[in-house]
Input
Amino acid sequence: MIRTNYDTVAAGYADLLADHLAGNAADRAVLGLFAELAGTGGTVADLGCGPGRIATYLYGLGLTDLLAVDLSPAMIAEARRRYPGPRYEVGSIDRLDGIADGGLAAAMAWYSIIHTPRELVPALLTEFRRVVRPGGPLLLAFQSADPGLPDHRHIESAYGHDGLALDAYRWDAGVVTGLLADAGFTVRITTVREPEGLEPQRQVYLIAV
Ligand SMILES: C[S@@+](CC[C@H](N)C(=O)[O-])C[C@H]1O[C@@H](n2cnc3c(N)ncnc32)[C@H](O)[C@@H]1O
Output
């Protein structure tokens, strides 16, 4: 379901968000910090890379050994066409079979854990722990489960398309910090950005090692 929905919206999503990072200093600052912590001593993965807009930004910051993975073949096609440089692969981030234990210097999941059903997120984080080498940073970005908002959205229209069926989960930063600890990570940096524009909730960025 995630795959077919993102295949449908891939081009529209890529168009709509093409300039988003350029207008968002907080996102760029978090990514810059992550890039500095990741260093250039090994492969860095963008897990759930979508059309590659974040991967290409990290690539431009010097992370040129960059592997970017997404479930949606249409997203990967957009990424290859729009943002050459990173290595793009179709794959599921909950089973990173092609990556050895400790095979990554660092990894990030930028709004890509949000569609995973809550009960499956612990296993997802355990898989991230398997592939990131000890001491390597993991960056997660997601929408905050702020008071007064539903902790779950069912999306039927997005990025210029109707007829979608996509679930998206808001998460409490403390809850994810706890799940990361259970998976073997320690959160070192927590950043919470207030809503901007039409955003109904705050945005959370966690960097763990
Ligand atoms: C909201 S988009 C974010 C894309 C990109 N990180 C960005 O910020 O532009 C979520 C992406 O995560 C991908 N995704 C969600 N669950 C996934 C999974 N289990 N394995 C691989 N990709 C996944 C979707 O296909 C989609 O491209």
